[in-house]
Every structure is written in structure tokens, then in C-alpha cells.
């Protein structure tokens, strides 16, 4: 078997494997049941950031240049 043919077959096998992995991942996400949320309860997310590192990161210049996060529009 020629070297070029081996390279082509290896690439094809890698592409097929990648497609299969993405397909399985997408199927797993689609089959999940949505979690019912109580509209009266807030959604809480806990962060494990080091407060000292956060303070060092947010310099005066970064705070001045910060842009607000986009917020959803509710009708």
C-alpha cells in the first residue's frame, strides 16, 4: 500500500471517528429532559475564585474599560 493511500485512509478514519463522537454527544444532549425551574426562585451559581486574584485582575484601567454584559429582552 502506498504512503499516500495510508495517509488518506488515516484521515478518513479520523474524520469518521470525529463525526461519530459529535453525533453521540449531540444525541446525549437531545435526550436529556429539561429541568423544571420554579419561576419564583433565583438561579444560583457558586464560584470558587480566589478573592485576592480577582482584586489583582480588576485594575482601575480594566474597571474603566469594562463593558456591561448583554441582557435578555423580556416582553
From TrEMBL:
Region feature Disordered, mapped onto this chain: 31-54
Keywords noted in UniProt: Signal
Signal peptide: 1-25
Official protein name in the record: Secreted protein
Lineage: Bacteria, Bacillati, Actinomycetota, Actinomycetes, Streptosporangiales
